[in-house]
């Protein structure tokens, strides 16, 4: 089988990921194995096989959307580290422009 050449260093540069020489060699081998597996799968005759969207049939996976009682403000704030005026206080993380 003709193995395609994978330029992991180029792909890493595009993704702005710094790789060591050892990582580049390891990922080159890993990606080569993935492509070998895909090539094996392409050998199977899938004519007439219906496409699958999920390996297990799923029926009625969602519950009906019905209103449920929520938490009271006191219950919602019970474990908050800091609260004020029925609101959870959090540290400022964004400075004004």
Feature tags:
mainly alpha; 97 residues; 35% helix; two-stranded antiparallel sheet; 3 helices; flat
In a nutshell, what does this entry contain?
The chain has helices at 8-14, 21-42, 73-77, and strands at 83-84, 87-88.
The assigned structural class equals mainly alpha
> Which term fits the overall shape?
flat
The number of E-state strands comes to: 2
How much beta, percentage-wise? Answer: under 5%
| Count of DSSP H/I helices | 3
Helix content: 25-40%
Mean pLDDT: 87
Low confidence ranges:
none
Q: Kindly, what is the distance between the CA atoms of the first and last residues, rounded to a whole number of angstroms? A: 58 Å
The major β-sheet equals:
2 strands, antiparallel
What series of H and E elements makes up the topology?
HHHEE
* Radius of gyration, in angstroms, nearest whole number: 27 Å
Main-sheet strand order equals 1-2
Structure description:
The chain has 3 helices and 2 strands. It is flat.
SSE layout and pairings?
Blueprint: H1 8-14, H2 21-42, H3 73-77, E1 83-84, E2 87-88
Antiparallel strand pairs: 1-2
């Amino acid at each position: 089988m003709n193995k395609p050449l994978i330029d992991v260093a180029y792909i890493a540069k595009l993704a702005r990921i710094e790789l060591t020489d050892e990582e580049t060699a390891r990922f080159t081998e890993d990606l080569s194995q993935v492509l070998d597996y895909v090539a094996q799968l392409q050998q199977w005759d899938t004519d007439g096989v219906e496409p699958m969207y999920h390996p297990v049939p799923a029926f009625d996976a969602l519950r009906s959307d019905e209103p449920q009682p929520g938490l009271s403000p006191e219950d919602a704030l019970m474990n908050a580290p800091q609260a004020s005026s029925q609101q959870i206080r959090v540290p400022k993380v964004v400075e004004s422009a």
